[in-house]
Every structure is written in C-alpha cells, then in structure tokens.
Amino acid sequence: MPSARRRSFAVVDISAGVQLLLHERDQHVLCQCQSQVLVYARCGITLVIADGKNFESKRMSQALISELERLVSEERNPKTMNIDLLPTIEVLHKINDEDSGVPAAVEKVIPEIAAAVDRIVGAFQKGARLVYMGAGTSGRLGVLDASECPPTFGVPEGMVLGLIAGGPKALARSAEGAEDDPRQGVKALQDIKLTADDVVVGIAASGRTPYVIGGLSYAKQVGATTVALSCNPRSIIAGIADIAISPLVGPEVLTGSTRLKSGTAQKLILNMLTTASMIRIGKCYQNLMVDLNPSNKKLVARAVRIVMQTTGCAAQQARQALDQTGNDVKLAILVTITGMDVEGARKALGSAGGFLRKAIGEKTL
Fold first, then answer.
1. For the segment 209-227, what is each residue's pLDDT rounded down to a tens digit?
2. Which of 67, 98, 179, 252 does the annotation list as catalytic?
3. What HEC string does 221-245 produce?
4. Measuring CA to CA, which residue among 236, 275, 295, 175 is closest to residue 12?
5. What is the pLDDT of residues 164-207, one digit of tens each?
6. Is 179 noted as a catalytic residue in this protein?
7. Set 148, 157, 176, 343: catalytic member
8. Are 127 and 141 in contact (CB under 8 A)?
9. Is 98 an annotated catalytic residue?
10. What's phi and psi for 247, nearest 5 deg?
11. Which domains, and CATH codes, for the chain?
C-alpha cells in the first residue's frame, strides 16, 4: 500500500472511540485490513489497531526494529563497549561516571518541570488529582512517588495516583507485555473517573509506550492537563502532551537498560514534581515537613523534633502539644508559638489556606 504523508494532527481511531493524536509527525500506513490499521510514526510507535489484536507481520517487525534504532535510549554507549572485561571496581566506576551526568540533564529541563508544577498546583487547589501512568520501571517509579505522598505530606490517599500497565501485580513481577495495548491506558483512566481538572503525567523512557500513549490521548479528550516524561527527543508522547519534559541522558551503560540513567532522571523529576507542588500548597514550613503523618515510631519521633526545631520548646512540651492536637504537627507548632487553643489555631490555619507561616503572622513572599 502506498505511504501517506501528513502534517499537523494525524488521527488514528482505536477502540472505544478514543482518538490518538500524533502532533507534527510524518506517518506511513504500513498495512490496513478492515478495522485493523498499523501506523508507523517517524519518531516513534507502532500503533495497534482498532480491535486490539496484535497484528504480526514481517513489515511490522522491521518497522519496530527501525524505530528502536532511532531512539537515543537504545543506542550503544561507546564508553562501555568493553565493560564485560573489567574488574568489579572499574565496572562500578563506569556506572558512577555515567550517572554523574544525569543531574545536568535534569537541570536543562527545569523550565518544563516548573510549568508542570504550576499546573499540578492549580489542580490541587481545585481538589483535583495528579495521576502518573507508565509501564515497567517507569510505572513503578510513578507508583512509588505517589505512595510516598500521604505519609510525607499528610495528603489523602488518591490525591496523587500511580497507575502501572498490568495493574498492581506488575509492581512485584514483570508484566512488560501489558504495555503494548493502548486501550489498557484508556481503561485505567476511565476506571478512576478522570476529570478535566486532573493532571496526567505519562512516563516512558522511550516515549513510545502504547499504554501511555493511549492514556495521554484519552486524557486530552477529557480535557485534563497532560505531561510527557521521556528520555528521547521529539518522542511521540511529547507530541501528544501539553507539556513535554525530555531530559537527554544519553545511551545507557547497558544498551537499552532504561532502569539505569533514564530511570534515575525520571525519579529525580518525579521527586521535583511532587515536592515542589506540595511546597507551593503549604505542606512545609521553612524546610520542614509540617504536614507529615506520624504513622510509625520513626515519624512520631520526627514530629516531636519538628515541633522542637520550630518553636525551641523541650521534647516534653512538644509531645504534649502533639497529644493536644491529635498528632497534627502544624497545629502543635501554631499552638506552641501563639498560645492559641486548638480550635482557635485550627481556624487560623484554615483562614491562612493551610500555610503555617501566614497563620503565625510571619512575612510571606
């Protein structure tokens, strides 16, 4: 079948009436059979098909191989070609040397990270959610970051969600094939009743994971803010999303093993997204986690120390304040500093929008 070249938006219908948008991509239709359409995009993906069945063909296999050859994350690293010949200490130095360049790659995309943070803050202020979605390592990193938000910042379960291709079982056991169906990305977002106020961050080192592409495309249909996090330039998910974060960490120590530098970059960026967003909605005072949930002995001890550090009081007084406030660190600090009763402090904190500095009456920016 002759190839068809298109500019601007190319639209491919997948199941459930979901439209997959590939922005500014040249595409070539490789084969078409009734409802099955296979499209190869210049920078990235072999799209499967209206009825959800894998359409195996020699041409499809060749297209996928050709596609992977163009990904930075699939290139061979000339610095580690002989790594299998090195002694342990030199192997570790090679890995460490490669890792050392990751923060600089992240630094270059801070403007894009900041744009995403501002959207996330806006969503939180409307009572909406941050939703991560990915497959394999990318999905696990999203779930990890989401799961750490409730104990760290005292936010409710579900305010930050992590979705992984293959579901919860894929966290402990590899289910890499689950990433190949874009409809599963759509279904995952439908199952959580995604709204236009939410923010969806699609995580895929390659930038071509069908599960993530399906999810981001559906999120755009719903009207949600979409963010793409990939480690390849001009990726497919970057073309779909409102905001593209693409740190270029270069080829991996082991070719294609994106749990290494790519995974490190992704983890750093996810840390920044949630930490900065939580700071911006008042979840810290100075550099202290004043909204943490003291859910175990270590965190209870940390809560006591935070009250002591912010107020200058002794440990016994800090414990008494925490007992008074039901282990609410912010309230304990406010009661100790101002002498308010608990209910008065609670109202003051509410009037300050949860910002402890403002409730105390300190100067804010």
1. 999 999 999 999 999 999 9
2. 179
3. HHCCEEEEECCCCCCHHHHHCCEEE
4. 236
5. 999 988 888 876 667 888 999 999 999 999 999 999 999 999 99
6. yes
7. 148
8. no
9. no
10. -70, 130
11. 9-72 (no CATH), 84-280 (3.40.50.10490), 297-360 (1.10.8.1080)
